[in-house]
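Service request form, structural biology core

Requester: graduate student, group of Dr. S.
Request type: structure prediction, single chain
Budget code: on file
Notes: please return the result as structure tokens.

Sequence provided:
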Amino acid sequence: MKNITTLIALFCFTLFSYSQCEYTLEMNDSYGDGWQGNAVDVIVAGQVVISQATFTDGSSASLTFDATQGDIIEFIWTDGDWSSEVSWEIIDGNEDLLVLGEYGDTLAGLNILARCETQTSDWPTCADGTGNTLELIHPDLDNSLAENWNCINENGSPYAVNSNELYVESIDSELITIYPNPVNNILYVKGGSYLYDIEVHSLLGQRVMKLFNVNEIDVNLLNDGVYLVKISDGNMTTIKRIIKF
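Core staff response, request fulfilled:
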């Protein structure tokens, strides 16, 4: 009986350790005199984990908090002086950037989820705890290869027909960068070419924008949410995911 109890306790500890991880809230001030009374509450899964985070002097400060895989992260702000100087980042336990923004960004409705698992395979993680389902990028592709799958349909797509809209002949995402992301108005595209053909699709696969020979797009009129951006220069094509707020 003692051995069984020990095994159960070890299993519970291992499961808890695997699903929970530490995050860092990086607070920045562009002038270098602290947040001047501005403060933020960090909300994880509906619970306040950091109350009135702020700092009074210098250009930056940081605080840590715990979150469990799939927890929604949001902010509540308290107004102070010189809010335009305030910016922030959330860094995960692998020192990867989860999300960044400025004063007043609450993240409400953006579905910013804690990700605690280290990626150990090539399969996309966009469906992990988000309610989305993976879909073949094109019905003719090999469904045994991880790179042929992505989250196209928001909130799941059981029994749905695969979309042809987001099919690309080749993908080389390292050659093209987009910024800022999350984005509110102008999204810039930078890479090996100067101009690109750009399409913006909803997670339902619907094309909502299409432009030719550009290196920036104005997404101000789009509804807040997650979109897929298809970028082509005639030689290569890539798909990037953006958050519009």
